[in-house]
Amino acid sequence: MLKVEDLSVTINHRNILQDINLKLDDKELTLILGPNGSGKSTLFKAILGLVKADGKIEFNGIDITNLSPYKRFEMGITMAPERMRVSSNLTVEDNILIGAKMDVEEVFAMFPELKRLRKQKAGTLSGGEKQLVVFARAIASKPSLLLLDEPFQGLYEDLAIKIEEKIIELSNELSIAVITHERIEEMIYNADLVVLLLGGKIAYIEKIEDVEKTFDSLRRYMIV
User: Fold this and answer.
1) How far apart are CA 88 and CA 118, in angstroms?
2) Of 8, 68, 129, 176, whose CB has the highest number of CB atoms within 10 Å?
3) pLDDT tens-digit profile of 47-75?
4) In 148-169, which positions are buried (b, 16+ CB within 10 angstroms) versus exposed (e)?
5) What structural domains does the chain harbor?
């Protein structure tokens, strides 16, 4: 479980996040919504220790506020970033093996689309294929908490559906938080918690019990 208390981030004298209080439970799927510039990616970076933040962050009962990003990764916090960061000169297989704690054949069983590309240089892949490599690499680290920043971006429809199904399946095993501007309605039907950020603050947060009620609430913010 991840617990964030009174989290604030200031960059270049600008308040990016203000007084964020949030709890991500085990084996739950959380959607982080909001317009560009609302602080969503910065929230993930703060959880990962990539930006300086005030407040407190606990993971599985341990205060990780002052721990390095590497220590947080070792504890099981992993992110698949929005921008496709693959090592172009390495093969697909070698990219997946970076930080892997899972056997690569097990990963390829989960992502058969990548198995046929395993010896291909990652730099030659399409944008969607690179995004899939980033996602598979994150899964290969066997995280307890997986942060996904725009996982559907650049994917064709069939592949986006497969990724969505994989996210939903994995949320029965670990905690997943997803930033997305795409497939919001489809994801809400399977999510446990929705968080809306506006201007660096939580404008709306709700455990999803009545999907239609959640849709009605988000429509007031013109999100769906």
Assistant:
1) 13
2) 176
3) 999 999 999 999 999 999 999 999 999 99
4) bbbbbbbbeeebbeebbebbbe
5) 2-76+143-219 (3.40.50.300)
